[in-house]
Amino acid sequence: MSDAAPKAFPVSWDQFHRDSKALAWRLAGISEKNGEWKAVISITRGGLVPAAIIARELGVRNIETVCIASYHEYKDQGNLVVLKGISESIVAETNGGEQVLVIDDLTDTGATAKKVREMLPNAHFATVYAKPSGKPTVDTYVTEVSQDTWIYFPWDLDLSYSAPISGKKDG
Asked: Integer distance in angstroms from the first to the last C-alpha of the chain?
């Protein structure tokens, strides 16, 4: 992210559910052409919620996680650390990810997707949101946001006062 203050983009549970379901609709259209998805791989933690919604909507029961830590202190993307890899059986049984969906909430720089693509080179990568730097690393996404936007996901939020965009104080 740049040195300028990022634009805040808070996402409610309702909006995230709608956007995840919209992603499922797009992926359903792809499976109609290419055959049913054999598995869903969630990039944790951000991919857990959309992966659950998408797996339900597409009727996929084989769900796996790959655990990668990349954001630190909710400020910047740091070094990637693979905490848990993908099941060897899924890699072998799907020829490196054919007909496998890899789901994440966001592609920012694309670093996480690149790391997972090394593990599953033939998988279909999908995210709910995509920033310009990350777009080339995913196959399908729903909403593009600017690179200087910080998305606040519903699991990161509490209900509280929000200052006006103008910065002017009320009253």
From this structure: 34
